Amino acid sequence: MTAVVQSTPNFASQLVNGILAIQPLAHLAKQQARSMMIKRAESIGVYWHEEVKALRSREQAIDFAPEWEVDLVQIQDSQLVYPEYYLRSFHAYAEGNLGWQPAMEVEVAAYAVHARIWPEAGSQGDSRLRQSYHNVLKAKIPQEPRDILDLGCSVGMSTFALQSTYPQAQLTGVDLSPYFLTIAQYRTTHPRSSSTGESQLANRPRPIWIHALAESTGLPNCSFDLVSAHLIFHELPEQAAIAILHEARRLLRPNGTLGIMDMNPKSEIYAKMPPYILTLLKSTEPYLDEYFGYDLEQAIYKAGFARPEVTRNSARHRTLVAQVR
Q1: What is each CA distance from 293 to 18, 74, 176, 234, 237, in whole angstroms?
Q2: Would the pLDDT of 194 be above 50?
């Protein structure tokens, strides 16, 4: 039995919104959320500061070393105009996703955030969540895709995991953050030993990384068999989400498939979340109310897909799979 999330935030959510409208309190909530993530990571054996230090070892004493800057310039589209919604603060970072600190911390943050999805999962919670999504894809897609697009690929964790599931496919990762993509490119040749399968990908097609908007990728029509979006829709305002669905439809071949894995607004976990924890969560996710309020299934259908099949792949996540209509 799941609780239905109303399109209008309930009283507790409205109270949280009022608290977060006060900037000093919002800043405090973001810092507390970040502190909790770091402590959780350390508690499961993911040593946040050491992991980030390993990436920063490419830096000089004061400024970033040429390696990072050269990589950034090579992958960045200097003509790209960032949409207003992307310039917001995300995940307790004032710069949102447009900086080195969020790029270097996103991997350890993912391990911390997903550590408690299943009891005793610990540092394996993240890979287990990704695998639960891929299990649904494999069950719903009869023929293995040859070309896969990973929208909002971040630093490549979702891309590498998809490549482990579909080892013969050509993967393309698109993201708006050139900093994230620089880390993804680095991880292509320097995988983390504990990451989800990257160390086994040496003899497989290397992912292609593209700095572009998910709603306007610039890629050719009908280029992909599978378009995947892993945990990005809760970070989007509704209009951007709709535009991305239409772009996915344009990019898919006949009989192609859209796969979306994200937070489940109907989960009782969110409906019963204590106000203090809800405050910390919403302080890092500026579009959460909007995501919980609109009908993603109907938006998928209106974008040119069949009615999506919805599977609960964890207590707080859902997978939506829809074929081109």
Answers
A1: 18, 39, 24, 11, 10
A2: no
